[in-house]
Amino acid sequence: MWNSEPTHRQQHHHQHQHNGNSTSGGPPAKQLGMTSAISLAEPRAEDLQRTDELRGSLEPYNVFESQDELNHRMEILAKLNTLVKQWVKEISVSKNMPESAAEKLGGKIYTFGSYRLGVHHKGADIDALCVAPRNIERTDYFQSFFEVLKKQPEVTECRSVEEAFVPVIKMNFDGIEIDLLFARLSLKEIPDDFDLRDDNLLRNLDHRSVRSLNGCRVTDEILALVPNIENFRLALRTIKLWAKTRHILKFFGLFRRCDLGHAGGQDLPAVSECCSCHIGAQVFLGILALEVAQPSAAQAPRQRQSEISSLGSASQCLGSVSSDAHHNACVPPTEFHI
């Protein structure tokens, strides 16, 4: 889960959803999310043209990275993943575990936030999570692994914030800023294909590990719910750029960072709902004019599931952007001017 591409499980989920949305003589259209789609109609020629124009209008703002820059990020995350596996093995051996058993423990780097969603811009940081088995303590991470990172020639500005609400190690790894969280699972081993969306893994975990897992779990949940990922990415990139240039990004509950322990920059159920249709450019315009009597959600709440921020009623905002105690942002209807 280093890159921003959906997993095989998510791709299968999207294909299943797409097949269920057939409107030509097949079974009834499957409802995606808690509310029905704006439209199930195929895009018209002018819709596709406007989507291409919207994508082109984003190019001058450096919101897309080149393939070389994307590969560089992948190489950095691969190095981090190797460091984690080696560190878990060494710490386990130092605790008198046989080396043959320590080899099998694993450990893994997961990503979340804008990078995992595939909507990060040039030079953006990477939000990542180090997942370790139960024999690794949090103190091991913030002491021995912190020292391992400091010794790497590619790492600069390495610092730990252990007492934060969501404890994190911040660093610059070969030119890319990385915020690396830590979660210790109550499992003997961490396989490479382990899925963090399983609610059962939250049992018997400390609060800091649960908060650290939140970002990855919410990101993967959104990727699984959005039937058209490319439209979702284009809409989200556009909204983020619009909010940034309007100097309101920091006030958007929609983009509240996971450093604070909330769902984070990846939570945008309104976009995921609008992307159940095929039209790309109209998603953004539709959201800005959206009026909902009740907050929208991409999925019904379930026990032990991290909450996803909602888009509040635009009609109640009276031209201002605010958020309530539950971080539900109110976005006024407006026009798009970058």
Protein model, in words:
- The protein contains 10 helices and 7 strands.
- A hairpin with a 2-residue loop joins strand 4 (168-173) and strand 5 (176-184).
- The strands form 2 sheets. The protein has a 5-stranded mixed β-sheet, with helices on both faces. A two-stranded antiparallel ribbon has the order 6-7.
- Helix 1 crosses helix 7 (207-225) and helix 3 packs across helix 6 (138-150).
- It folds into 2 domains: 31-61 and 226-330, no CATH class; 67-221, 2-Layer Sandwich (Beta Polymerase, domain 2), CATH 3.30.460.10.
- Mean pLDDT is 75; it is low at 16-24, 253-274, 276-280, 290-296 and 303-338.
- The protein starts with 7 loop residues before the first helix and ends in an 8-residue tail after the last strand.
- With 338 residues, the protein is α+β, with helices and mostly antiparallel strands.
- The chain has helices spanning 8-20, 45-58, 67-94, 99-102, 113-117, 138-150, 207-225, 229-245, 269-274, 281-288, and strands spanning 108-112, 126-132, 155-161, 168-173, 176-184, 322-323, 329-330.
